[in-house]
Amino acid sequence: MTEHTHAHRDTHPHPQGHDHAHAAAAGAGPRIEVSCCGGGCAPSGAAAAPQDAHDGHDHGALPGWGRIAAALAAATGAELLHLLGPDMPLWHGAGMLLAGAAILLAGLGIYRSGLRSLLRGQLGISALMAVAVTGAFLIGQWPEAAMVMALYALAERIEDRAVGRARDAIGSLLALSPQQAEVQQPDGRWQTLPAAQVPLGAVVRIRPGARVPLDGTVSTGRGAVDESSVTGESLAVDKAPGDRLYAGTLNAQSELEFRVTAAAGNTTLDRIILAVEQAQATRAPTQRFVDRFAAIYTPAVFVLAVAVAVGAPLLLGWSWLDAVYRALVLLVIACPCALVLATPVTVVSGLAAAARRGILIKGGSWLEQARGIRAVAFDKTGTVTAGRPVLVAQHGFGDDAAPDVAVALAARSDHPVSKAIVAGLDAPASLPTVEDFSALPGRGVAARVGGAQWHLGNRRLMQERGLWNPAVEQAVAAHEAQGRSVTLLADGSAVRALFAVADTLRPQAARAVADLRALGIVPVMLTGDHAAAARAAAREAGIEQVQAGLLPEQKLAAIAALQQQHGMTAMAGDGINDAPALARADLGFAMGAAGTDVAMETADVVIMNDDLRRVAETVRLSRRTHAVLWQNIALALGIKLVFFGLALAGQATMWMAVFADMGASLLVVANGLRMLRPERAGAVD
Length: 685
Prior knowledge:
The chain is an alpha+beta fold. Among the domains are: 33-171 and 275-350 and 623-681, no CATH class; 179-263, Calcium-transporting ATPase, cytoplasmic transduction domain A (Distorted Sandwich), CATH 2.70.150.10; 389-505, Calcium-transporting ATPase, cytoplasmic domain N, CATH 3.40.1110.10. The strands form five sheets. Strands 12-24-23-22-13-20-21 form a seven-stranded mixed sheet, sandwiched between helices. Strands 4-3-5-11-6-9 form a six-stranded antiparallel sheet, with no helix packed on it. Strands 14-19-18-17-16-15 form a six-stranded antiparallel sheet, sandwiched between helices. Strand 22 (569-573), helix 21 (579-584) and strand 23 form a beta-alpha-beta unit. The two termini are 38 Å apart.
């Protein structure tokens, strides 16, 4: 049995204790900045590694567009003087001055960063560029040194802008929550207040076309709300009193009033932003591999360059200038920028693509792990089914008035089955008069209706009243075999009607199971419900393996058995009793709309709109992310290997080296950003 622990739980504290309002107000958000060093790149964010641990691939130190343009102009002038000017000291001096000006305009910040790196004994991209450009200038290749530095600065700016697309894809979530809310005062007036000052329980009004400022429950009004920003649901959702509202969603239809259930900083949107920030601060497995590889690769290439500069003239008879030049070209090619950009941009783009579809993945490691899922265990109630009883069948035994009497009696009860009967029957304009109503605990209710005594209850009540007969037994047994709960209505002489109530399947459940099978994943149902109800729901959903009547600790054992039988196993659930199994599984999926806080905090992935098809979509997204990651790594290393050979053969110039290095960087960034396209993520409607 594979031993599996979830040490990551401690890295995801309950967001209720996290005050995110100040970040939202300040416009702060998740960042995807990259610090390059001998050990690779890491995203900097709330929990990023300390800055002094990295060589600053510091985009803030790069020159602005104006200075880059001036540097390119100066470098071009130096090239023209070198190629077209007469061979005179004055012209050479003017060319060197232009080259020096270009290097200072484009590379002053890079030199500072490289010096800090060298003083720490690290070989980052800034240090490599500073050594290469300085060396080229000193051996007389000053026009090329100037152009290389200017082109490098230009490429870095373009790269920074491209990486910003992934950053903005998630950071834009912060703009969804309005900073103000229209709040009802004790005297009935409406006052506009900062959202951060609105207390729990306050009544807030939102007009058509406005975004919801805080989480809450509708108190007055009916209308449609666009929840795509939080749940990924493409169609507007109808809202009525008692329905939940999420901060950041759009009121699309009519004026609504709601009562605040989560203060600023603790809303569902804040939880998403916090989880994404934490996700960016943790490294995915592929990124950790790249970091370890780069920690060996960069010093090794530096040693190779020194060996070429010193050893080639002594052993191979190369000229010193030629050997030093080739070594400098190697240093430019050796910059690990493309390699270390390959993972963070791709992973964060994948996380952003998932968040846009209402899939909240709590870290890059879980995004990568999902591709290896071989079995998914589903809870039944609230996960495969909607978790609400619905009237699915009724059968009369010869009394036309029975439905009206049933509604009159059921309307007096707060039991969920009674509420389902009332909701499922067409109530008449005026209900029959009910007298002498009494509740019979564990059995049903009794009352006088229209002068006659009536009972509405279960099998036990009818048997006690002597109203049980073979015809009723046969009808009840047929429904109970399908996992339905049966309620009977009887007068003083016989059973007059049967009402079958069941927890119905979620609309997308069968499609979700079919999608998993198409991916080669085995679906299983693990539930504490009784066997008949479990088998009926599983049969309708297309799940063949069912284990029913399980206690929470028995679900743990079942997950362990699935891991041993199939390998990597995921668990999807919504309740407190599912939390142990969610933690024990290799990957836990929680239902975000119907799920409990405990389940959502324990799980690795939260499906915000409870659409089970998102489980298969997460697997497809993970497989796509993994493929793009290794495409990027192969692209970055392949280009470098080609240019290593060209440099050693004397066929590569510094111009070619910088184009190869930065071109590879831009290619891996562009390839990683493809993850932001929903069709590339295996999106569902």
